Write a sequence for this structure.
């Protein structure tokens, strides 16, 4: 079992927060960083892959709203059946595991990589085409994060309101591995226009925000929760939306999250403690495009 505490570092969180605050509060540096990012997008625009109408509609929704909630199968990724089988194999033992005092538990890396179709799902060309068009630049892929949020009604970690800080834009796909209702820890978000207003009024840079402060800043009833049956998929840009995992009360929530950013992210992600054997297995048989999406430590390790 891996707990949430085992995959986070106080020093890493502090360093990323300081970097974010400097770029936010020192105007010339923010302008310079924004300018470099937009220049990368401008140069890459002629190389963006073509999209079919369904892919283009998803990108348009993300650009306009920052989130889309639907079915995993709606994404039409060719290896999704294999992904579901692999996730069921991991989710069963994870659900049966004694969590102790932890609010979040994860499978071991050996369990996560036992069937590589799970981790590699996010490297499928159809997904990379969508992500690249939304980001406007080539993507970096961080893999699959399978987790169980224990139904203990504790407001800790990502159960608090926040925006992610990886980059100006990211894409995350969050998939329910069990049915999730209002008491089962659904993903909650503030719609994009209200997020922008709340962020400005809160002078928000990074970190967690108390629930009462967020509620005071948004219109009554505007907070949206993504409830749904198993295999519901939330596609979101969590760097643009105030969001949280609602604390589960009546039952645990099982999910998997896939994450992509640009290859020049603002926030440095801590790499999982993959062994050399893990890395060789992940890299085996990948295309040149897929290899280029891996974080440098994984591609070169």
């Amino acid at each position: 079992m891996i707990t949430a505490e085992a995959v986070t570092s106080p020093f890493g969180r502090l360093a990323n927060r300081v970097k974010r605050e400097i770029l936010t509060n020192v105007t010339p540096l923010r302008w310079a960083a924004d300018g470099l990012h937009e220049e990368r997008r401008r140069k890459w625009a002629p190389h963006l892959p073509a999209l079919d109408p369904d892919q283009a509609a998803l990108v348009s929704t993300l650009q306009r709203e920052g989130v889309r909630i639907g079915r995993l199968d709606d994404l039409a990724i060719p290896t999704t059946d294999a992904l579901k089988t692999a996730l069921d194999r991991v989710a069963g033992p994870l659900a049966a595991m004694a969590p102790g005092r932890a609010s979040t538990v994860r499978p071991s890396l050996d369990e996560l990589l036992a069937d590589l179709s799970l981790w590699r799902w996010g490297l499928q060309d159809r997904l990379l085409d969508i992500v690249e068009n939304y980001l406007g630049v080539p993507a970096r892929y961080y893999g699959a994060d399978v987790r169980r949020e224990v139904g203990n009604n504790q407001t800790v970690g990502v159960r608090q309101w926040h925006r992610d800080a990886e980059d100006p834009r990211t894409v995350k796909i969050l998939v329910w591995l069990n049915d999730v209702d209002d008491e089962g820890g659904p993903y909650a978000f503030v719609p994009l226009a209200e997020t922008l207003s709340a962020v400005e009024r809160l002078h928000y840079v990074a970190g967690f925000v108390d629930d009462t402060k967020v509620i005071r800043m948004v219109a009554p009833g505007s907070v949206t929760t993504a409830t749904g049956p198993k295999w519901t998929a939330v596609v979101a840009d969590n760097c643009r939306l105030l969001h949280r995992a609602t604390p589960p009360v009546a039952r645990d929530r099982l999910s998997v999250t896939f994450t992509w950013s640009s290859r020049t992210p603002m926030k440095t992600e801590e790499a999982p403690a993959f062994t050399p054997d893990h890395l060789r297995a992940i890299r085996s048989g990948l295309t040149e495009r897929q290899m280029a999406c891996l974080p440098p430590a994984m591609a070169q390790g």
Summary: Residues 3-8 have pLDDT under 50 and may be disordered. The chain has twelve helices and ten strands. The first helix runs from residue 10 to 25.
